[in-house]
Write a structure and sequence with these properties.
Radius of gyration: 19 Å
Largest sheet: 6 strands, mixed
Helix content: 25-40%
Mean pLDDT: 93
Distance between the termini: 35 Å
Low-confidence stretches: none
Shape: globular
Number of helices: 4
């Protein structure tokens, strides 16, 4: 049985996992940070789904000049979520989305634009035009630029591995994971594990995962 040791193991290679790995490595450059992906990196998870050319990501840049602000965005998130969203997390999204997306732009993400300015569209759940898109592959492009940054700073990626169990030590603390790759078992021993496997929407009969 193969054994792999690392400081931080991120399980899931979509946008959340990619960003988590990037921040873990940035915060701890001396640690081995590893990203475990069940398929090919950049082509797995719900981030990669191409539902339509209008499927984008939101931030109140107000490029369209319709008066969008973080406060209006917050109200839209809470209202659209029907009261299920954590207000504190909704506040973080509303207040930080512009800075986080600007970071992606600075990394090389190119949103659909007109005359040098990103286009923001008015989509469902929004009272202002705040959705930014990269054609029909917005999620894939986000993972691509994050993947490039992860490669630059030394995040290690293991593809085609499916994690099937978290492992605990004698105190009950999670200390690793068991995975399968090409029918062979791999044990990951890690100082910390970040779960970024998505799927929470399946708690609900109707979801848009």
């Amino acid at each position: 049985m193969e054994e792999i040791r690392c400081g931080v193991l991120v399980i899931g290679g979509g946008a959340a996992g990619s960003r988590a790995a990037l921040e873990a490595k940035r915060s701890n450059p001396w640690l081995d940070v590893m990203l475990a992906v069940c398929g090919k990196y950049g082509y797995s998870g719900s981030t990669d789904i191409v539902a339509s050319e209008a499927l984008g990501i939101n931030a109140p840049f107000n490029f369209e000049g319709d008066g969008d602000t973080p406060d209006i965005y917050y109200d839209d998130i809470v209202s659209t979520g029907g009261g299920l969203g954590d207000p504190n997390l909704c506040r973080v999204i509303a207040d930080e989305s512009v800075d986080r997306l600007q970071e992606l732009i600075d990394m090389g993400l190119e949103f659909d634009s007109k005359q040098g300015r990103p286009i923001q569209r008015l989509l469902s759940g929004c009272t202002k035009a705040r959705s930014l898109t990269c054609g029909g592959t917005t999620g894939r492009e986000i993972v691509r630029v994050l993947g490039n940054e992860n490669h630059k700073i030394g995040v290690k990626v293991i593809e085609d591995v499916r994690i099937i169990e978290l492992l605990k030590d004698e105190t009950g603390r999670v200390c690793g994971a068991l995975g399968l790759k090409n029918g062979h078992e791999i044990i990951f021993k890690a100082g910390a594990i970040i779960l970024a496997t998505g799927g929470a929407g399946r708690m609900f009969r109707k979801n848009i995962n």
